[in-house]
Amino acid sequence: MDKRERERPRVVLGVSGGIAAYKACELLRRLTESGHDVRVVPTASALHFVGEATWSALSGNPAGTEVWESVHEVPHVRIGQAADLVVVAPATADMLAKAAHGLADDLLTNTLLTARCPVIFAPAMHTEMWENPATQENVATLRRRGALVIEPAVGRLTGVDTGKGRLPDPAEIFELCRRVLVRGPRAAEQDLAGRHVVVSAGGTREPLDPVRYLGNRSSGKQGYALARTAVARGARVTLVAGNTELPDPAGVDVIRVGTARQLHEAVLKAAAEADAVVMAAAVADFRPAVYTTGKIKKIDGQEPEPVTLVRNPDILAELSAERARPGQVVVGFAAETDDVLANGRAKLARKGCDLLVVNEVGEHKAFGSAGNEAVILAADGTETPVPYGPKEDLADTVWDLVAPRLADTDR
Questions:
Q1: How does pLDDT run across 292-335, given as a tens digit for each residue?
Q2: Could you confirm whether 216 is annotated as catalytic?
Q3: Most buried of 156, 216, 247, 392 (most Cβ within 10 A)?
Q4: Domains of the chain and any CATH numbers
């Protein structure tokens, strides 16, 4: 093995026997194409859905289910020992039970017992199986031991059934795996485990008439990055999403809204039981005073009637002034175009939040871009500059500042 191969992150993709096993092929493709060295370890049941030849061909590595294959290499020990990440997708109710109870009757369960790296379970099963007290107890046990068990998605299941239990989008599971690997040894800390965080994202739209609205350029990417990174750190995440076309992040409960007043209602409701609230959404400060039920017509020779605006609720100030729980941490965002830090400090004092992420917006800055840079102002007077980089890096820095504040409230 040359140096380049040794430096490739080593991922074990465990596949258990559910119909969603075919979706793991897409996850495998994304992992291999992005430079990861992937070893697929399916269960015997999984091979009823996708054959061993497929896993071997897509990964470039052998894929087996038995501890008796290549015994001289001691695979039941070595595979887990050598891994940088183990992800089980799909994870059936049976697999969660075996992992929680330390059973080891095949190669995958042996691998889980020997792994000393971060372990992610992406459950997929029928709603009744997911909600069964036995499954929930197994999930709680695995989380308590440091495993990252993400919440399944809501949607179409096998047959005509619909509900919670669907495997999250493989592209989003990949993003979660990537984030856990980026955090490296810190990923095992799970410093948000047991916490419930609420994140708002995207822009609001305030309708003028049935076809027009007042809006902004927010893509929602920064809020979604905050949601993803919080999941990677073990949090239960509620994402209140404004108008965005982004797919639901894996393991996140998503509430979709359109207007500022809808976002206000949804955030306050979710915040009632949250440890932290991060207001990353671009919320419209104003809305039209009058909604015209018919399309506003252009009349030749006449100027349009002026649009009168009224204020929308100040969600950040309300959250800060009326904390739903003792010790709740509130984070705001400020998009500024000039006197960025001066305006940011004034806004921090005015809103009363604990942290304020201040970034300059403009052409190719913040809105819609893949990267971001900011200065995070704290109520205690400290300032944390975050250089330009992926929006996930800024998100992780936000959680780096939130986590110790939450820990302080527990003392």
A1: 999 999 888 888 889 999 999 999 999 999 998 899 999 999 98
A2: yes
A3: 392
A4: 8-187 (3.40.50.1950), 193-409 (3.40.50.10300)
